[in-house]
Every structure is written in structure tokens, then in C-alpha cells.
Amino acid sequence: MKIKKILWLLILFVIILVAANFLFSQKEETEFANIYLGSKIIKAEVVKTPKEMAIGLSKYDDLPENQGMLFLFPVKMKPNFWMKDMKFAIDIIWLDDNKIIDLTANLLPPVEGNLPTYQPKEPINKVLELKAGFIEKNNLKIGDEVIIK
User: Fold this and answer.
1) In this structure, is the dihedral angle defined by the CA atoms of residues 70, 79, 117 and 99, taken in order, positive or negative?
2) Who wins on pLDDT, 113 or 71?
3) What share of the chain is helix, strand, coil (3-state, %, to 5)?
4) What's the pLDDT band for 3 if we cut at 50, 70, 90?
5) I need a surface site. Which of 20, 43, 85, 132 has the fewest CB within 10 A?
């Protein structure tokens, strides 16, 4: 009788363990947007939560020229951006809806002990980060329109 009880408890434990593993291993699907900048189309990972924003592009070792990360803010603001743990240089395009408000080009990964922050000149509600050189190569200007789908 005692062995049956132990066996049932063991089976129940295994079922709970399998169910917990399944539930906690489920990841949120990554959302992407297509961004049209002049004749270029960028596939951008969309981030909305503070945790996703804090990590940003630092989770990547490099980035193809036609990919980026789009940060969405619920209200217009002048957020501070950093490059903590970044492994490559980036350009930042500061957007108010679908218009370029400011540009910050060729930001290098931080030197140990120095972690500057960057912010736009005007309030924005979107930020697009791309591999460094994109702004110059594509001759982007403040006031340019951007289409996000």
C-alpha cells in the first residue's frame, strides 16, 4: 500500500514537473515591423517593455545592414539611451510618429567605465536603431518621412 502511494506521488511530481517546464519554456513571439526609409526596407524587431528596451541590441554580436530594432513608447518623451554591453557601433533615428525628429550617428560601444547616454532634441515616441553608417550612407535628414508597417 505504501509503495502504491509513493508511486502515485512520483507520477504526480513528474506530471507537475513536465507541465511547469512547458509553461516556463514558452517564449513570447518576437514582433517585427517593416520600415521604409526612402528606397530601403528595414526589418526591425519591435520592443515595448522596459526590460526589452534595456537589453536592446546588446543581445546581438552584429547586425545586418537591413535589420534594426524599433522601440515604441506609449507617450512622447525624451528618453535616455545607453549602449551598455553593446558589441558594435550603431546609428539612432529618433521618430515622432512617422517623421525623423533627430539623428545620432556612429555611436561606438562604450569604453570600460564610461557609459554615456543619448537623447533626442525633441520629444519622440519611436526610436530606430541600426548598424552604424546607415544614416550617412542613405543620406537621411531631419524631417524625412518614415513608413512603418
Assistant:
1) positive
2) 71
3) 25, 35, 40
4) confident
5) 20
Residue from 100, 96, 80, 98 nearest 142 by CA: 100
pLDDT score of 25? 45
Cα 128 to Cα 126: distance, rounded to the nearest angstrom: 7
Looking at this protein, which amino acid is placed at residue 39? S
The dihedral through the CA atoms of 108, 109, 114, 115 has a sign that is: positive
pTM: 0.80
What single string gives the DSSP state of each residue in 16-67? Answer: HHHHHHHHHH--PPPEEEEEEETTEEEEEEEE-SHHHHHHGGGG-S---TTE
CA–CA dist 6, 40 (Å, integer): 64
Dihedral sign of CA atoms 36, 40, 42, 48 in order: negative
